[in-house]
């Protein structure tokens, strides 16, 4: 039987994060019907989970243009463009109101578990392009399916952290030790305080998340000196994260790196380099034994909690039946991979890119937002907003608008962790804190790289 026409079907957006909700706003503006399926209980569940963390990009780069236009009709006022929101601010002051405007077009507690071409598995080519997408999702224990004319997967990567093992596989015993893993961004000074106070924590990783968690633990240790902090990195030196110093190719990075280096030098943080975590074993009472190797010796450490800030990877299992064109290294759409490969870039010179770079062999299917960067940690919201503007223009048949991609970011100032550290409780950054601080937002395993955000194509 020939496939049914698709024009009256919605465009399914997976994930009601900042980029998914922006996609919905663009779809509405273009007269296309969005249906946003979100696994969490409310808008931007992933951002809400790191609500205590302050963004490094000020509000002016955090709000999508179509979303702003949609919200403007409700009397919504744009927060101070120069202030830095926390994740909680972003949800409360922007994404929750946006989700309210979208109303029943956003369904919560709805997890997408598979996407396919209706009636055609991955190998079947006949009539493939005419077939709608079939999106299978769960609500509680119930399984449902919805058909879609196109699918925009904006489901992020926060749900699939990289494992601790050195080969990209879980350390032996890692799944069983899951209760000791706190994720990359625990609220050390707030909701999760009890878990860390007066206890031993191993922080694994060398990116923005690890650095912020370490500094929070150092602050906790000042109040509760029995708190022990061990920091494990895979590399030989944390110099890239510290920044500055006469022998460093990078210019001074200021607050984040300096504070961290001071904490290590003062002995508040015990640094282990060239760490390979091979095995986790239960250790009494209430601890886990971490076994492997370090630069100097065997690793054998009993800790209460491990902060696994080892980066994230996309969940591709639910896309098994879709014909994707992914880069074999970073698992991003092949054409954007060279722009964001963490072996080559820090916060990367990321040219604007859109539908043409994000398309796959299965037309009408797109990875956008954080997930479109695969394993690369260099994603910025402003880039994602431009992605969805372009993708939606293409879906609406406006090829010229889809191809006219542009990123209006300054060369600097959207990617500075130091500014978020210096901000006051309202997110206002005192005068004099430099905007041109390099690479605070993301980790990279490679050597020092100059950082330029927003180069145009
Ligand atoms: C601590 C931190 C600070 C950051 N600071 C900045 C910053 O200052 N500036 C900047 O530009 N960027 C920043 N980023 C990077 C990036 O902008 C954010 O990660 C952003 O949240 C990505 O948006 P997203 O919509 O692509 O994905 P997410 O925000 O991760 O949203 C994905 C949504 O999809 C849902 N979901 C997941 N799986 C499914 C499924 N199977 N079915 C249905 N729903 C699903 C999730 O619950 C979630 O709500 C930061 C990231 C982190 C982690």
UniProtKB/TrEMBL annotation:
Transmembrane segments: none annotated. One of its GO terms (molecular function) is monooxygenase activity. SUPFAM superfamilies: FAD/NAD(P)-binding domain. InterPro entries: Auxin_biosynth/cation_transpt, FAD-dep_OxRdtase, FAD/NAD-bd_sf. Keywords: Oxidoreductase. Pfam families: DAO. Residues 11-71 form the FAD dependent oxidoreductase domain. This is Pyridine nucleotide-disulfide oxidoreductase. It comes from Promicromonospora thailandica. The lineage of its organism: Bacteria, Bacillati, Actinomycetota, Actinomycetes, Micrococcales.
